[in-house]
């Protein structure tokens, strides 16, 4: 039986496809990409066949070159293709019950967004239990640059992936234009803290609390955001510190990497 399996594997070999898949699998394990020479050495292939294969992968947008042109890393194309596949449905179905429990306990709404063609797409939304609140419509496209969801999504990517996402970005209606130095400082702070908690740039009186959902490599596959609204009447609702702690636990439970990074909120 084992011999038959080996014969079948040899009979249906596709060397060119194998080379391409070897490159994709190798690059998937690299945070900062690899040079062509490094790829050639690690895969034990000759330089000319690696050059041709890399050029085709770049042309088909599965692989991108670094700004200097000397390193190769995975693009977000495989990531985008995965969103059309049932695993995205599994993410939504797994997240919704947990999001509902969060909303009931925190008495706030919560939404889940993923990267999609230069901005973010809201794929799940749960309203809080009260008579009033703020929510983002399911299926909405929200800005990559000036939202908590977008900044957290960008913060937890490799440098190459972040540049690719920013290059694909197109402004949505009302989106603020922000200085790149300001954005880079924000990404560094979010990475250090493990989350973002900032006043909304879209709505007065709202504080966006956002945590990443991390994949196995530690990069964000989605962003979980609570647009926190503080009550000023006599009803005592959960504090922003309590809600931040609750959302952190939800994001950690949904992350493939096991837990979210960063420190406890003060």
From TrEMBL:
Answer whether the UniProt record assigns the keyword Amino-acid biosynthesis to this protein: no
A Pfam family cross-referenced in the UniProt record is HTH_IclR
Q: Which domain of life is it from?
A: Bacteria
One of the GO biological process terms: negative regulation of DNA-templated transcription
PROSITE patterns, A to Z = HTH_ICLR, ICLR_ED
Q: Which residues form the IclR-ED domain?
A: 77-260
Q: Which UniProt keywords apply?
A: DNA-binding, Transcription, Transcription regulation
Cross-referenced SMART domains: HTH_ICLR
GO MF term set:
DNA binding; DNA-binding transcription factor activity
Gene3D superfamilies attached here? 3.30.450.40, Winged helix-like DNA-binding domain superfamily/Winged helix DNA-binding domain
User: Is Membrane found in the keyword set?
Assistant: no
What is the name attached to this protein's record? IclR family transcriptional regulator
Q: Which organism is it from?
A: Caballeronia telluris
Q: Where is the HTH iclR-type domain?
A: 14-76
């Amino acid at each position: 039986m084992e011999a038959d399996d080996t014969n079948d594997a040899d009979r249906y070999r596709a060397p060119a496809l194998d080379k391409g898949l070897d490159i994709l699998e190798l690059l998937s394990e690299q945070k900062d990409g690899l040079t062509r020479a490094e790829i050639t050495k690690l895969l034990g292939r000759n330089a000319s066949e690696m050059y041709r294969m890399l050029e085709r992968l770049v042309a088909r947008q599965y692989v991108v070159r670094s700004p200097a042109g000397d390193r190769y890393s995975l693009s977000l194309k495989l990531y985008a293709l995965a969103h059309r596949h049932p695993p995205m449905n599994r993410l939504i179905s797994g997240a919704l019950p947990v999001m509902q429990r969060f909303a009931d306990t925190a008495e706030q709404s919560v939404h889940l967004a993923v990267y999609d063609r230069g901005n973010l797409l809201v794929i799940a939304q749960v309203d809080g239990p009260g008579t009033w609140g703020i929510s983002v419509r399911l299926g909405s496209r929200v800005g990559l640059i000036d939202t908590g969801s977008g900044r957290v999504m960008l913060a937890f990517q490799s440098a190459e992936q972040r540049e690719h996402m920013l290059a694909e970005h197109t402004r949505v209606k009302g989106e603020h234009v922000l200085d790149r130095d300001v954005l880079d400082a924000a990404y560094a702070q979010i990475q250090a803290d493990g989350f973002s908690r900032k006043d909304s740039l879209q709505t007065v009186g709202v504080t966006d609390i956002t945590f990443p959902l991390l994949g196995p490599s530690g990069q964000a596959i989605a962003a979980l955001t609570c647009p926190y609204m503080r009550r000023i009447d006599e009803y005592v609702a959960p504090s922003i510190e309590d809600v931040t702690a609750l959302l952190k636990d939800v994001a950690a439970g949904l992350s493939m990497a096991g837990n979210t990074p960063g420190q406890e909120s003060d």
